[in-house]
Amino acid sequence: MTTIIDSIQLDYSDVLIQPKRTTLNSRKEADILRTYKFKYYNKQIQSTGITVANMATTGTFNMAKTISKLNGITCLQKHYTYEEIVNFLKNNENNDLIFISTGIKEEEYEKTCKILDTGLIDKVCVDIANGYIPNLAKFVKKLRDKYKENILIMAGNVVTGDMTQELILNGADLVKVGIGPGSACITRKITGIGRPQLSAVIECADSAHGMNGMICADGGCTCPGDIVKSYAGGADFVMLGGMLAGSLEAEGEVIKKDDKEYKLFYGMSSCYAQEKHWGKMNKYRASEGRVVEILYTGPVENTIEEIYGGIRSAMTYISARRLKDIPKCATFYKVNHQLNEIFAK
Ligand code: 5GP
Description:
With 345 residues, the protein is of the alpha/beta class. The protein has helices spanning 61-69, 82-91, 106-116, 134-147, 161-169, 187-191, 197-209, 224-232, 271-278, 300-318, 326-329; strands at residues 15-17, 34-36, 45-47, 50-52, 73-75, 98-102, 123-127, 152-158, 174-177, 214-218, 237-240, 255-257, 260-266, 291-295, 332-334. It has one domain (32-247, 302-329): Alpha-Beta Barrel (TIM Barrel), CATH 3.20.20. An 8-stranded parallel beta barrel has the order 4-5-6-7-8-9-10-11, surrounded by 6 helices.
C-alpha cells in the first residue's frame, strides 16, 4: 500500500519566529561571524554562512571577490575552464571562502583533481540535482580517500536525514539540502518530487549535527527573514541564488526596458542553460528550470548588508548573541498568514 506521511511539512512562509525577553540591547551586540570546524577538513573558517549558489548567473569570479570581503562563501559555477579558474585563483587575494563546483562525471573528477592539485584552493562543492544517485556518494568517497582531511567537501542535494548521513559517512563535511524550493526551479512541477524547505532543513540539520556534520540550506529564500528562519531551523550555511542574481556582480548585461533595469536569471537545468553551457539539451531530459528577467539591484554589497542587518535584528529579538545560538533561541509559530501585502504591488 502507498504510504502517506501526514506530519506537517513546512516552508519558510508557513512560520514566524516568536520574540523573547532578550539580554541584547542593540543589534551591534549580535555577532554574525561564526568560526566553523568540520568533521573531516582540518582547517577552520570564519564566515557568516551566507553562500552564493553555484549557478552560472551567480557563481561568478566577480561575485567571489566581493562576497569574500563580506565574509560570505561563494561556490563558483562549474562551467569555467581549468585555465580560467586557475588564473582567477592565482590573482585573487584570498581564496579561503571559495569552493569550486563539480558534477560527478569522470572528466569532472579529473578536472576537480587537477584544480585541487595546484594547491590554490581546497574546497569542493559536488552538486547534482538528485543527491540520491549512488554515484554521488561514491564520488565523494573517492575525493575524500584521495585528499584525506586536506579538503572541505560539500555535497548534495538531498532533503531527508538518511541520505544526509549517507553522504557524511562517505566523506562530506557539509550536505546541501533542497529539492525543488529554488526560485528558478520547476522540478516539483515536472517530476512531482520535493519537500517543503524548512522541514527538510530541520530534519537534515538534526541528522547531520548528530554525527558532527553540517548542512547548507539551498534554495527558497526570498527575503532576509527566510534566511533567519533557515538558521533557526538548524542550517549552518544558507545558499542564495535568486536573491543575489539581480546584482552588478552576477553574470550578464543590464537589460533596459520601460525605464526599468533587469538582469537575466535562469535555472541551471533550464533549456536556456543547457544549450548555453553544454551546447545542447539531451533528448531524455525535460527542462527543470525557468528563465526570468529580474530587477537589477546594483552592487551585491547592498543586498548583503540588508541581509546582515536582518539577521542581527532577529538575533536581538530572540536573545541570540552568536549566529550559532539562533536555533537554540528560536521558537516558531506556525502561521496561516505571514505578510500584509496590501501596498506591495
Ligand atoms: P534560490 O535561492 O534562487 O531560491 O535557489 C537557488 C538554488 O536553486 C540553487 O542553488 C540550486 O540548488 C537550485 N537550482 C538552480 N537552477 C535550478 C534548475 O534549473 N532546476 C532546479 N530544480 N533547481 C535549480
